[in-house]
Design brief:
The structure holds 2 protein chains of 2 kinds.
Chain A lengths: L2 E3 L4 E5 L4 E3 L2 E3 L6 E7 L6 E7 L7 E2 L2 E6 L4 E6 L8 E8 L9 E3 L3 E6 L1
Chain B lengths: L3 E4 L2 E4 L5 E7 L5 E7 L5 E8 L5 E2 L10 E5 L2 E6 L8 E8 L6 E3 L3 E5 L1
Parallel strand pairs in B: 2-11
Antiparallel strand pairs in B: 1-3, 3-8, 4-5, 4-9, 5-6, 7-8, 9-10, 9-11
Classes of the chains: A mainly beta, B mainly beta.
Chain lengths: ~120, ~110
C-alpha cells in the first residue's frame, strides 16, 4: 500500500519570503500522480499543483513550484513571495494510475503554514 | 474544474440520529468520492461511488453505518447513521474533473454530534 509522509507538523514564513514544504511517499508503482492541496480555515480543499510521475519536468503554478525527485520518492512544494493568504493547512497526496475505486487519493497528515506579516 | 456544492454546510445532531449529506456537481462525472476529516486530522476515504453500481467502501467503513446513493452522474448522498460523538467530523465529497486523474473537492459539511 502507498503511504505519504509529511514529517513537519508546522512551519512559519515571513511575508514575501520563500518556504519549502516537504513530502515523501512510498510506492512500488512506476507511474502515478502527486498533488498538493491547500485547506484554509474555510475548510475548502483547493488544488495547488499536480505532478505526473512520468514527467521529469517539475510542475509550476505561478508562485508555487515543486521539486519532484522520483528516485528519492520526494515531492516538496516551494512557495515564493509568500502572502498572508497562503496561511493554511497543506496536504500532499498520492494517486495511483488505476481507475475506478483504485483511483483514490492517499493523503499525508498535513502541515500547518503560518505567514508572519 | 467542476463546481461542487454540499448540503448542509454544517449541522449539530443528537446521538442516535442520522444525517444525509448531499453532493451536487455542475457536470457529469463518473467517479465521486466521500472523505472524512476528523478534527485536526488528515482526510480518510470512506467510499467511492460509481453511478449505477454499489459503492466501494474502504476498510473500517461499512454500508450500514455510511449508506451512499448515486442516482445519476451529477449527484450523490452520504448518510451517517446512528451517530455518536465520534462521528463529529468534516465530510467532503470530491469528483474527478475534466482534467482526468485530478480530484476536486466540495466545500465540506461540518458535523457535530452531541
Amino acid at each position: 500500500a502507498q503511504t505519504v509522509t509529511q514529517s513537519q507538523p508546522e512551519m512559519s514564513v515571513q511575508e514575501a519570503e520563500t518556504v519549502t514544504l516537504s513530502c515523501t511517499y512510498d510506492t512500488s508503482e512506476s507511474d502515478y500522480y502527486l498533488f498538493w492541496y491547500k485547506q484554509p480555515p474555510s475548510r475548502q480543499m483547493i488544488l495547488v499543483i499536480r505532478q505526473e510521475a512520468y514527467k521529469q519536468q517539475n510542475a509550476t503554478e505561478n508562485r508555487f513550484s515543486v521539486n519532484f525527485q522520483k528516485a528519492a520518492k520526494s515531492f516538496s512544494l516551494k512557495i515564493s513571495d509568500s502572502q498572508l493568504g497562503d496561511a493554511a493547512m497543506y496536504f500532499c497526496a498520492y494517486r495511483s494510475p488505476h481507475t475506478g475505486a483504485n483511483s483514490k487519493l492517499t493523503f499525508g497528515k498535513g502541515i500547518t503554514l503560518s505567514v508572519r506579516p | 474544474s467542476a463546481v461542487i456544492s454540499q448540503k448542509p454546510s454544517r449541522d449539530i445532531c443528537q446521538r442516535g440520529t442520522s444525517l444525509t449529506i448531499q453532493c451536487q456537481v455542475d457536470s457529469q462525472v463518473t467517479m465521486m468520492f466521500w472523505y472524512r476529516q476528523q478534527p485536526g486530522q488528515s482526510l480518510t476515504l470512506i467510499a467511492t461511488a460509481n453511478q449505477g453500481s454499489e459503492a466501494t467502501y474502504e476498510s473500517g467503513f461499512v454500508i450500514d453505518k455510511f449508506p451512499i446513493s448515486r442516482p445519476n452522474l451529477t449527484f450523490s448522498t452520504l448518510t451517517v447513521s446512528n451517530m455518536s460523538p465520534e462521528d463529529s467530523s468534516i465530510y467532503l465529497c470530491s469528483v474527478e474533473g475534466l482534467v482526468s486523474d485530478t480530484q476536486y473537492f466540495g466545500p465540506g459539511t461540518r458535523l457535530t454530534v452531541l
